[in-house]
Write a structure and sequence with these properties.
Layout lengths: L4 E3 L17 E5 L4 H9 L3 E2 L8 E3 L4 E4 L11 H5 L4 E4 L3 H10 L12 H12 L3 E8 L2 E11 L2 E9 L4 H15 L4 E5 L3 H4 L4 E3 L1 H11 L13
Parallel strand pairs: 1-2, 9-10
Antiparallel strand pairs: 2-4, 3-4, 5-10, 5-11, 6-7, 7-8, 8-9
């Protein structure tokens, strides 16, 4: 019987992702310190848990990813960009975006996995220039957005929200175009959704995903706020 690894609070090492369960659960426990989170992302692992659970660490197989040059922009979105229907900023209000992501009700989920501890941890990553947010504006109000972590030339998407039709898509497409210009190799979407699949994301076997991570170790980790100009 598979035994999920309990992490040592004094040791940042994670077990081999290939030891994850069929669902992708690999380990539990530990903490959400900056160094542990960086170690996790560099190893293809991310935290996802609820308030009444210990910290759970996941590495699903296959991984749902988007290669930036495979972005799909449907005809229905093109008129919105032609008219600059929304305005988009980066790293303008990370805390607002993560709070809104935590409030969105999602099918099949009770409550939110974006706990107070998760918010505090990712806000710290943002302050260090590692986590980033995308804000989508309409009439001087944020109506959509997303956030994630950038290491080397891989962006690890965490969550998105929208209060207006097409706002999150508009923000995601704008982000991907920015990442294309910055020569990013991969966008990690973690788990499959119809929304991201419609934009070109697809499943990738864990071993291929891990190969991207190994190559990414040699890339410079730029820290600082992003500008989409």
């Amino acid at each position: 019987m598979f035994e999920i690894t309990e992490l040592d609070t004094h040791n940042l090492a994670f077990p081999d992702p290939n030891m994850a369960t069929k669902e992708g659960l690999l380990a539990f426990g530990g903490d959400l310190s900056v160094n542990r989170l960086l170690s996790a992302y560099a190893s293809g692992i991310f935290p996802w848990y609820s308030d009444n659970e210990p910290i759970l660490w996941w590495s699903p197989n296959p991984r749902f990813v988007l290669l930036p040059n495979e972005l799909v922009v449907h005809k229905s979105m093109k008129p919105l960009f032609n008219r600059s229907f929304f305005q988009v900023t980066f790293d303008h209000d990370f805390e607002y975006v993560i709070n809104q992501c935590g409030k969105i009700k999602r099918n099949g989920q009770h409550g939110t996995w974006i706990t107070k501890e998760m918010k505090a941890a990712y806000i710290q990553l943002f302050e260090l220039g590692i986590a980033h947010s995308v804000e989508v504006w309409q009439q001087n109000k944020i109506v959509g957005g997303l956030y994630g972590v950038a290491l080397g030339k891989i962006f690890f998407g965490e969550s998105m929200f929208t209060t207006v039709s097409n706002a999150s898509k508009y923000g995601f497409i704008t982000l991907v175009r920015f990442l294309q210009k910055e020569h990013f190799k991969l966008i990690d979407c973690q788990q499959e959704t119809l929304h991201l699949g419609s934009l070109g994301a697809k499943p990738m076997p864990r071993q291929i995903f891990m190969n991207y991570l190994k190559e990414n170790v040699q890339k410079d980790h730029y820290r600082g706020k992003w500008k989409n100009t």
